[in-house]
TrEMBL record:
Keywords: ATP-binding, Membrane, Nucleotide-binding, Transmembrane, Transmembrane helix, Transport. GO terms for molecular function: ABC-type transporter activity; ATP binding; ATP hydrolysis activity. It is a multi-pass membrane protein. Residues 92-354 form the ABC transmembrane type-1 domain. Belongs to the ABC transporter superfamily. ABCC family. Conjugate transporter (TC 3.A.1.208) subfamily. PROSITE patterns: ABC_TM1F, ABC_TRANSPORTER_1, ABC_TRANSPORTER_2. This is ABC transporter ATP-binding protein. It is found in: Cell membrane. It comes from Fluviispira sanaruensis. One of its GO terms (cellular component) is plasma membrane. The chain crosses the membrane at residues 58-81, 106-127, 184-207, 213-238, 294-319.
Length: 672
């Protein structure tokens, strides 16, 4: 498995990235994410047609020319046949050429026609090849663009709306829906108008050659329309159900992979196996229904031209029409061309129903609110030009000054929906710059949520979080900047200066070196010097572990860090914060999996060493030993502040919740 993973992410493949990018960029007219999100929310289907309209027009032009060329060659072939018969009364052209013609002239004429047919066929084939090339580009580019926008939407989606989607749903959207939509647009969209146009042309030719008898053929062909509509309706129902079943299976597989260890230890293997078996089976049965429908429709359409030509023959016999070889040949050939045009109809209908379902499902995901949409209008600050310049510099990491930040939380309350209770109530607190705040309290008291509100990740239901940034850049008259966290600019500013260590470490399947700066390393090219990475490894007390690894910093740590212990993952996550050297550090209980000795070193490095020096640190913790290192402690219980103050003040008060909490823990320790 590991070998397979290594093969699939061979980094030398990245050398081909510029080539792929250049190819995909040919005629790329996609706007930026904000503009495209607006269009995608109305209809992904229409948005993609809008962005690829030049390619579609090009394909239409090529395809229709290809069809006209094929028809001209058919027309020439019929003329060829008639030149041998010399009996035609239908065609003035033939009369013109053959009336008094000698055998030699007929020979020259037929040879010329044969050459023309050959050239037309070559032309049609080369046009067709060009169309296939563009089709292939679109079949890759459309899912690729959809995947990019899904990724950006996921990055921005509001926390409240994100909870509606499971990993399986999103995987299915990116994997299947994007592909279905791309498939239809690339391979079928243009073919439908071409099909109509070419059918019209063939029909004109049939009337010209076969007269009123051709209408019998048209009537038989027209029977395909209600049949196709019927199959499309069934396809839509079957396909919607198929995608739902796909979501379910992918959800199960994700859960299964994530919980593999527990599934094994608890002996739940059989249960999961049955669940996945049932989900796959139900998807398979649905696929069978779809395939059956498709085969039936395809077989019917594929052979329909025979019914059409039989109908025309019957008409010729019934109306005693022209039974010459060229007329019969024209009836067969033109019916087969008409049949060819409508052969892909069931496929179109199938792909169309898949694309409509995919577009509807994608639209639902795009209409999910993004974070910025939760910000209230009046919260947006009006910055003057100088402030805007400074903001721009901070965001792009170009300000020549150390930055520090303070917070002011005013009556923060939070609930996830109107039907749910508040999980945070009226939180008001001042957090001075360059100081440390510890947030403690029982489980589920709201510590992580408060941190996420301060980080700008969740918008509170009521209340504001104001920040003030301090800097000292000689180029500017001002040396501080204030604003609201929950604005686009506030969020961008915070993200430029903060680092965050979550409860559960996020590890990418790569080497330790790549995991710390979290930037992908191109072959033979290092983004960041090893020294900076090594220093952060020392700060996070990971160096002794590193010595144990045979490949040092280049050790691959497997998917989600499977080759590491919980404490090792936490320390990799911590070393990222040290590496970032950010002015604002959020630590959400990151020491829960480390031993007492490592905890001591880490607490010392963070709160007493260079790592946290002059930084504003917000630390949520259940470990009370090192609270003495912090400047302020906030005690949360049931989403409300029950206590706030310095360690000394709270410790001196015998009745403080902190003391009760500590003695409660000691009591618990004694009993155990
Ligand atoms: N997305 C969500 N939707 C609904 N409720 C949520 C959501 N996220 C958290 N909660 C609820 O908010 C409450 C506080 O959660 P939070 O994660 O902040 O607790 P905590 O104090 O950090 O807990 P712990 O000490 O266990 O980490 C919990 O009751 C939790 O169920």
């Amino acid at each position: 498995m590991k070998k397979l993973a290594k093969l699939s992410i061979d980094k030398s493949d990245l050398n081909s990235v510029p080539f792929i990018n250049n190819t995909l960029a040919k005629g790329d007219d996609y706007p930026d994410f904000d503009t495209s999100l607006h269009d995608l929310r109305k209809s992904p289907f229409q948005a993609l047609i809008k962005y690829e309209r030049k390619q579609f027009s090009f394909m239409f032009f090529i395809h229709i020319t290809d069809v006209i060329t094929s028809l001209l060659s058919a027309f020439a072939a019929i003329q060829l046949l008639r030149s041998f018969e010399k009996t035609s009364t239908n065609f003035k052209l033939i009369d013109l050429f053959y009336h008094e013609s000698t055998p030699n002239q007929i020979l020259i004429f037929t040879v010329c026609l044969a050459v023309i047919i050959f050239i037309l066929k070559i032309l049609a084939a080369s046009l067709h090849a060009q169309k296939i090339e563009t089709e292939m580009l679109l079949a890759w580019r459309i899912p690729f663009k959809l995947m990019q926008s899904l990724y950006l939407q996921l990055l921005k989606i509001s926390k409240k709306d994100r909870t509606q989607y499971q990993t399986g749903d999103i995987t299915n959207l990116a994997q299947n829906d994007a592909k279905f939509l791309g498939n239809f647009l690339a391979h079928a969209l243009v073919d439908i108008p071409v099909l109509l146009a070419s059918c019209a042309l063939v029909m004109i030719l049939m009337i010209a050659m076969l007269g009123k008898i051709a209408w019998i053929g048209f009537f038989i062909i027209a029977l395909q329309i209600p049949l196709s509509l019927f199959f499309s309706w069934i396809g839509n129902i079957l396909h919607t159900e198929m995608m739902k079943r796909g979501d379910k299976r992918l959800q199960l597989i994700t859960e299964w992979i994530q919980g593999m260890r527990l599934v094994r230890y608890f002996g739940w293997g059989k249960y999961f196996k049955n669940e996945i078996h049932e989900a796959t089976l139900s998807e398979f049965l649905q696929d069978l229904k779809i395939t059956f429908k498709y085969c039936f429709a395809f077989a019917l359409t594929l052979n329909w031209w025979m019914v059409v030509s039989s109908g025309i023959f019957a008409g010729i016999v019934f109306y005693n029409g022209d039974r010459s070889a060229s007329t019969l040949f024209a009836a067969i050939w033109l019916s087969s061309i008409l049949g060819q045009q409508i052969t892909p109809l069931p496929w179109f209908v199938n792909a169309w129903s898949q694309a409509i379902v995919a577009s509807r499902r994608l639209k639902l995901f795009y209409v999910a609110r993004i974070q910025e949409e939760e910000f209230l209008e009046e919260k947006n600050n009006n910055y003057n030009p100088e402030e805007k310049e400074i903001i721009d510099k901070i965001i792009h990491n170009k300000l020549n000054s150390e930055i520090s930040i303070s917070f002011s939380l005013n009556n923060i309350s939070l609930r996830f929906s109107k039907s749910e209770p508040y999980v945070l109530n009226n939180i008001s607190v001042e957090i001075p710059a360059k100081k440390t705040l510890a947030i403690i309290g029982p489980v589920a008291s709201g510590k992580s949520l408060l941190i996420q509100i301060m980080m700008g990740d969740i918008t509170p239901t009521h209340g504001d979080v104001h920040f003030k940034l301090y800097f000292n850049d000689k180029n500017y008259k001002i040396n501080s900047l204030s604003g609201n966290v929950h604005t686009s600019l506030g969020l961008a500013l915070l993200r430029a200066i903060q680092s965050y260590v979550p409860q559960e470490a996020f590890i990418i399947s790569s080497s330790i070196r790549e995991n710390i700066p979290l930037k992908y390393k191109y072959q033979n090219e290092y983004y960041d010097s090893d020294n900076a990475i090594m220093n952060s490894i020392y700060a996070a007390s990971f160096h002794t572990d590193l010595n144990e690894f045979s490949h040092g910093m280049d050790t691959e740590i497997g998917e989600r860090g499977v080759n590491l212990s919980g404490g090792q993952k936490q320390r990799i996550s911590l070393s990222r914060s040290s590496f970032a050297n950010s002015s604002l550090i959020f630590l959400d209980d990151p020491l829960s999996a480390v031993d007492v000795k490592t905890e001591k070193t880490l607490a010392h490095n963070i709160f007493r060493g260079d790592w946290g020096k002059g930084k504003t640190i917000i630390w949520s913790t259940h470990r009370l030993e090192y609270l003495k290192y912090t400047d302020n402690i906030l005690f949360l219980d049931g989403g409300s502040i029950t206590e706030f103050g310095s360690f000394e003040t709270l410790k001196a008060n015998n009745k403080s919740r902190l003391n009760q909490f500590i003695s409660g823990l000691n009591e618990h320790d004694r009993k155990n």
